[in-house]
Write a structure and sequence with these properties.
Layout lengths: L35 H13 L4 H10 L3
Length: 65
């Protein structure tokens, strides 16, 4: 099956299927209980990676790079 690209700038390109994120994955707010020293460590590490606390926890918790 031949695929014709509508944009001539991409006429020699090849369409590649990609997985779209699930639209139902929404951001939610949570509360948690944690030791003060652990929170201080999380905040230091987040700052070293130039991330917010939430972004750092999400990254570490999901193993994202």
């Amino acid at each position: 099956m031949d695929t014709v690209m509508a944009d001539p700038d991409f006429s020699d390109g090849m369409p590649v299927p990609v997985r779209a994120p699930d639209g139902r994955d929404e951001t939610i707010r949570i509360n948690l209980t944690i030791r003060r020293s652990a929170l201080a460590s999380i905040d230091r590490n987040a700052a070293m990676h130039v991330l917010s606390r939430s972004a750092y926890l999400a990254k570490v918790g999901t193993g994202s790079s």
